[in-house]
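Continuing the batch. This is chain 6 of the set; chains 1 through 5 are on the previous pages. Same settings as before, nothing changed between runs. Recording input and output for traceability.
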Amino acid sequence: MQSFRMFLSFIAELLSRRNLVYELTKRDFKSVYFGSYLGIVWAFLLPLANVFIFWFVFQIGFRAQPKGGFPFILWYITALIIWNFFSDSVNNGMNSVTQNRFVVKKVAFSLGILPIVKILSALIIHLFFILLVMVLFIVYGQVPDLHYLQIIYYLFATFVFVTGLSWITSSVVIFFRDLRQIVSIVMQFGFFLTPIFWDLSILPEKYHIMMKFNPVFYIVEGYRESFITKVWFWEHWGMTLYFWTVTAGVFVLGAVVFRRLRPHFADVL
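Output for chain 6:
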């Protein structure tokens, strides 16, 4: 019961700082490109360059075969953009407190918003990627439909899950610095174990359930179901229930762990 009250208090504290979150997100996003000639324009030029490289390699170079009647580049990049958002959010969220150690000793500052700021900053780039993918689908003759609205749902699901993870990692890494290397290795394995550039159907069916234990699988497949296969998320209610059970657990645990460890941050940093 004490942990639950701590969780509610922590969330209420963060909600009361939503205006500060908005201002810090703008500042964080701008600071990444501050000092370069093109400034914030790089935030959008780099995604465009990446998409062009993927298109050239897979469509021109490898002449990849269509997946489910869709060009391979569309099938691949639809999953890649949400993985990149997840990966950037986890890595940046984990380092959010150590990179802002100058505010740790400020009693009035809500440190729990720091991971959220990093996630929202990554979200700005991701939203541009989503628009870019939509344009690519239109170029290839695919007309947008209502299933695209599911992207909002899967974005929210990703945000909740990665926020909980970031609260855990950003607080634990202060006391256990090796966590950075561990997370880096896990993310590399996660990329190859999640069906991003390969199809789940290539595995024997007995291994499918193991792959589906990965919560990111739900999100990646959700993006493809929204853009390509046109399946509503409630049509596989078992996977949806499993994902939200895991996500709720990670979110609550993250809030409690961060709140419990926060008083000790200043002693270490």
